[in-house]
Amino acid sequence: RAHLDRIAAVEPSVNSYLHVSEQAIATAEAIDARRAAGEQLPTLAGVPVAIKDVLCTVDMPSTAGSRILEGWIPPYDATPVRKLRENGLVPLGKTNMDEFAMGSSTEYSAYGPTRNPWDLERIPGGSGGGSAAAVAAFEAPLALGSDTGGSIRQPAAVTGSVGVKPTYGGVSRYGAIALASSLDQVGPVTRTVLDAALLHDVIGGHDPRDSTSLADTWPSFEQAARRGAQEGSLKGLKVGVVKELAGGEGFQPGVLARFRESLELLEQNGAEIVEVAAPNFEYAISAYYLILPAEASSNLAKFDSVRFGLRVTPQGGGTVEQVMAATREQGFGPEVKRRIILGTYALSAGYYDAYYGSAQKVRTLIQQDFSAAFQKVDVLVSPSAPTTAFKFGEKTDDPLSMYLNDLTTIPANLAGVPGISLPAGLADEDGLPVGIQFMAPARADERLYHVGAALE
Ligand code: GLN
């Protein structure tokens, strides 16, 4: 009830939610009744949670921020959502996002932008700005996001929250409306590292319905966070500063100042800091913005006016092709169209090897940079984003400048490794939150919770 009251009070200015659940109170009361009857319930039973609108929910519309899915209610729950329910968490509603998770500011949502609770004139990050703003504005204690190129970590950074992109395959993608299937991962957005660990424990694990889901058994991330918090010390931990992700053009001085301070804090806690080179990271954005549109153009082909959501019939009727064209013309926003065109071009006969093929080779080189770095260090560190929250409209006229904001987050997705963004204080020049990012080898998500909780 407190969260629903808070939502009612701040939503007119923040706009984190696309839909608020009508069943939250009934669900919470049912959990209370089970507890009162003496049932042993899972740790997070009864805790409310916000869900990014990219995840399918049987009881709420799931639009992925797009007009083309307006009002669509899926016939099944995404696996992470099903696990929330099985563990007794209480879905509060669906959060706003850039259309089909394309963007870094939530300005590309078809339903209006979310505002950053720290400064309502600024973006909350993206694509999962709704989840991060909901957590930062105390409209939800926990939220789920999805991270294809930073959409959990960058919104967490610019709202002073914690965000985790798990190892690729660590959390099921079943029922997550696909952006780029080889990059997408669902993960937690929270206010503390322990909260993120608890939520990750709930949503993670093998799912036979996702062919890329890892069959691993995972350690308890809650225990990793608790151990980290208890020990406090990072003695023996080797931390690599990625030269390519920690300075140069586009980095705000206040972000770099907080970053350097965080490195000092790490050293004071006993960690050893070394500089590592990742020479191919320079090409990460170029490779990502070919691979992502290629996969997205294929994934979005299913929105054909027949199977889902919107159907626009031209005046006087039309052929199947004309209905499809009119629906996609009106149903998709400008950034989605831009990426469909880019992706279709990059995949077309005669260009495939030059664009998509080269990008895949660069992706392999980036993975090799990570492997070489992890021979020398336990975790890598960088700022989570090059800047603090920017003002609305600052980057929408220039898509490239929006893409460049993803510089620090994209390499982890290309390599499938896990990453966490932690609050690192406020930038001097604007008083806005700065995030610091840690990355670990694939399957070593546990390390991120240990380090994060030790620093908190
Ligand atoms: N900013 C990235 C993009 O626009 C983030 C995508 C994501 O992680 N969903 O592609």
Automatic annotation (TrEMBL):
Its EC number is 6.3.5.7. InterPro entries: Amidase, Amidase_CS, Amidase_dom, AS_sf, GatA. PROSITE patterns: AMIDASES (PS00571). Belongs to the amidase family. GatA subfamily. Allows the formation of correctly charged Gln-tRNA(Gln) through the transamidation of misacylated Glu-tRNA(Gln) in organisms which lack glutaminyl-tRNA synthetase. The reaction takes place in the presence of glutamine and ATP through an activated gamma-phospho-Glu-tRNA(Gln). Heterotrimer of A, B and C subunits. This is Glutamyl-tRNA(Gln) amidotransferase subunit A. It comes from Schumannella luteola. The gene is gatA.
